[in-house]
Specification:
Radius of gyration: 19 Å
Oligomer: single chain
Distance between the termini: 35 Å
Order of helices and strands: HHHHHEEHHEEEHHE
CATH architecture of the largest domain: Up-down Bundle
Largest sheet: 4 strands, mixed
Number of strands: 6
Number of helices: 9
CATH superfamily of the largest domain: dinb family like domain
Structural class: alpha+beta
Helix content: 40-55%
Number of domains: 2
Length: 263
């Protein structure tokens, strides 16, 4: 009988750095939104019928959810982790916890108001405060990391819709990459495949012979943005492989059955 697979230790995040990353990435979205005209705001996105205007409002509401939950009564003691948040929301998709963006929303005042409330409340609230998020009771510090996933993924959605580049805060992108990588390791526990997403994350996953020394026999490597797209269903394994956005070596290196983590 093969030995039991060890459960990965939860990754720790510095709450102050995560708050700063959320603030910085929201500012990059604001910068991109500030110069858009009505024609650009009406452009379609890859999120069904959602327009650019609605996507930007949705991004703001996703961050604004932090302040709203802080102001609500705390939930019972049962809680989920940031990794469990990814797995719990898998069927609903990234952004399911925020309401749809209002097509008539004044975007820049909305973004500024959300940023101000976030700065005031998130920094003044203990990181272990439980929030009654729709997906389950979750600590503030864990929920802040999930906001990095929301921001990074939807920044990529916005850039794709506009056909332009939008800046990424390094820490926000790192947090999103690591959380989704850890979710993969939790969804498919094991040590037979090593997934590398330089410069931010390396995890082992998939049950089977565990590698301990030398070059791993099964290795997947990709860049952070490709990883976000794979993990959230913005692209698929075959497409990324054909575009040489993934390198995969070894007979077990095809992890397409484990993807996407969030749809």
């Amino acid at each position: 009988m093969p030995p039991a697979q060890r459960k990965p230790r939860p990754r720790s995040y510095d709450p102050a750095k995560v708050r700063a990353a959320v603030t910085a990435q929201l500012a990059h979205v604001r910068e991109a939104a500030a110069g858009l005209d009505e024609a650009q705001l009406a452009l379609p996105t890859r999120l069904g019928e959602c327009t650019v205007r609605e996507l930007i409002a949705h991004i703001a509401l996703g961050v604004g959810l932090v302040a709203r939950l802080i102001e609500e009564p705390g939930p019972p003691a049962r809680e989920i982790t940031a990794v469990e948040w990814v797995i719990t929301t898998a069927g609903a998709g990234v952004g399911a916890e925020a309401a749809a963006g209002d097509a008539d929303t004044a975007l820049i005042p909305l973004l500024d108001g959300v940023a101000d409330r976030f700065a005031a409340l998130a920094a003044a609230t203990p990181p272990d405060r439980l929030l009654a998020a729709p997906s389950g009771a979750i600590r503030l510090d864990d929920f802040l990391v999930t906001r990095c996933v929301e921001l990074a993924v939807h920044t990529d959605d916005l850039a794709a819709a506009l056909g332009t580049e939008i800046r990424y805060d390094r820490q926000a992108l790192a947090n999103a990459t690591r959380l989704l990588a850890d979710a993969l390791a939790a969804k498919a526990p094991g040590g037979s495949v090593e997934v590398r997403i330089p410069p931010f994350a390396v995890v082992q996953c998939v049950a089977g012979p565990r590698h301990t020394r030398g070059t791993p026999p099964n290795v997947v490597e990709t860049d952070p943005l490709t990883w976000l797209r794979l993990a959230t269903g913005r692209t698929d394994w075959a497409t990324a492989l054909d575009a040489a956005a993934i390198s995969a070596s070894g007979e077990r290196a095809d992890i397409s059955a484990q993807l996407p983590l969030v749809e």
